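User: quick one, fold this
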Amino acid sequence: MSLLDDLKNAQKDAMRAKDKVRLGTIRMALSAVKQHEIDGRTNPGYIALDDDGILAILIKMIKQRKDAASQYETAGRQDLLDIELAEIVILQGFMPKALTEAEIDSLIVQAMEETSATGMQDMGKVMGWLKPKVQGKADIGQLSSKIKAKLNA
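Assistant:
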C-alpha cells in the first residue's frame, strides 16, 4: 500500500472517530500533495508523485511546524504551540522507522567507500549518495554534521 493510500485511509478513520485535529492535519497533507500535483502538470517533464515525493512533502511540513512551534514558544503562545506539536506527532506517524545511530554511521562509511571520498571537497558526493537512502529516516542536518566529522578525521 502506498503512502497516499495510507493518508487517505487515515483520513477516513479520523472522520469516523471525529478526531478534528488528526483530520485537519491529514487533510492539510493531502492538500499539499494535490497542490504539488496541480503545480507539476504545467511542467512538461512532470512525473506523478511516488512515496518518496510524498515523503518529501511530509518532511517539509514537519519542518515548517517545528519552526512555527519554536516561534510560538518564544512568543509564549502555549495554545498555538500545542496545536503545532500535535500536528508534528500526527505527521511523524506517516514517516518510516528512524535509523539508529549505528545504522547511520555504517551508511556514512559505506557512502564514503562507494564515492571514494577523502576530504571535505567530497561532501556533496557523499550527501548525494546518502540522501535517497535516509530520506525521512534521519535528520539531514545531523547527518551532515556526522559526515563533516568523518571527512575531517
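User: anything notable?
Assistant: Helices lie at 3-17, 20-41, 51-75, 78-92, 101-115, 123-134, 140-152.
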